[in-house]
Amino acid sequence: MANQHHFIVNHRDDIWQYTFRGSIFAHFTSRQAAIDAAIEAARATNEPYVQVIVQDADMKQELVWRPDGDEAPSA
Fold this sequence. Notes:
The structure is a single chain. Helices cover 20% and strands 39% of the residues. The protein has a 5-stranded mixed β-sheet with strand order 3-2-1-4-5, with helices on one face. It starts with 5 loop residues before the first strand and ends in a 10-residue tail after the last strand.
């Protein structure tokens, strides 16, 4: 099975951020801004199994982007 790498978008301490491989990229003004930045970074990896996931305060996860088709699933 292939390794999957995840960009995780979440809201913490009144800011939106995303994490990838232990690094935090923060201070986005909105959920969508953090998602857009994470997708741009994910595309730049050129990894076929990378995903962007939004994780809420209850640890529920929503897949919002993956490279196959380069489209976000319908919300």
